[in-house]
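Consider the following assembly input.
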Amino acid sequence: MRGILLSDDDLPGPAPGILIAPAYAGTGPVEEERAEVLARAGYVVLLGDYYGEGKRAADAEEATALMFGVEAQRPVLARRMAAALAALAAQESVDATRLGAMGYCYGGKAVLDLARSGADLAVAGSLHGVLDRPPQPTQAIKASVLVMHGWDDPLAKPEAVVALAQELTAAGAEWQLMGFGQTGHSFTNPRANSPENGMAYSAAATQRAYAALDRLFAEKLGR
Amino acid sequence: MRGILLSDDDLPGPAPGILIAPAYAGTGPVEEERAEVLARAGYVVLLGDYYGEGKRAADAEEATALMFGVEAQRPVLARRMAAALAALAAQESVDATRLGAMGYCYGGKAVLDLARSGADLAVAGSLHGVLDRPPQPTQAIKASVLVMHGWDDPLAKPEAVVALAQELTAAGAEWQLMGFGQTGHSFTNPRANSPENGMAYSAAATQRAYAALDRLFAEKLGR
């Protein structure tokens, strides 16, 4: 696995760490911009890699193939995320008692799977994540989970939202759902422009989601 | 109908107006405190009355009887709310082009019914509202709707949330749902203390709900 670590040069001491799980195409402009914003805010940020070798897909076809490669061995996703979190926690610049994670699309699923594994995580944020449960059992969830979801997302229907809510409740998680009406998948991606397929950018949903997630990071990670 | 109007003495000119629909017991400390906060923030606030004569129930039994009296003639609820909104809009201190509404419990239903009627409303906020649809057809919804919901609310199950989402989407509304895990009905009420019946105060949910609603009022009513 090959991630990218960002932090401010002038950190006064060990800082909270945030792991970002990219969308299914691998790290791109959306994840990079977000990482910069969080690093400037004083977090140490790891842009994670759940494919290996820091792969970035050239197009949707390649991204889909990479994603199905991991999906076919689903428990691997949580293990790779756990390895990334451990690498982040091991940084000298990081206060390992204050860790959060966020992810987009398939990376949202990756973050949920990490939280489901009982990882030592204060915050788990999923942005238009895919919500279906992995085969391995859900552990007691330590993270405060924030699910940011476009209600018209074709990859996560209302039934999947309701099932996730039930799962998180049963796992004892503190959790919140933000559902955005008239909004589909990929709402954080300014290049998403396929409303007929339920995938389109929404500036309003993006702004509301990031604002809520930033507040939760600040609340739980003590910044 | 007999409401209570609150506003700051030093308003520089016509201000946006907010109608508050109380919980089923009629206006009490929760609604009054909220009205004061909003008035201090520069809104003209009307504590509405959907029972008549400004009735406040002495206990849960009386509140239930009052509520069923209105519920038995459900279309009346939206009409009484419309009359309250018109009274608010007619105040000299109010800019009638900038109106919002919020409500608790049965008052959440009242605000939703007002929005469903196509009222000229920029914001409609429901706090642990009851979500079922009235018999009259839903009109094109002008309000930006924010549904703040405890996921374990016994008065509004996940199926009702999903049905409301579908209704709001079909009505063309801009809408958002905040779902709070491990949270039931009455979460804004510090005196609610019946978790075994799914009704209990949650300081965290209250704070998150009010913060989101305040931001939406500020965004849509231009304060």
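The interface with chain A takes residues 145, 151-152, 158, 162, 165-166, 168-169, 172-182, 208, 211-212, 215 of chain B (CB under 8 Å). Ask yourself how this observation constrains the way the partners meet.
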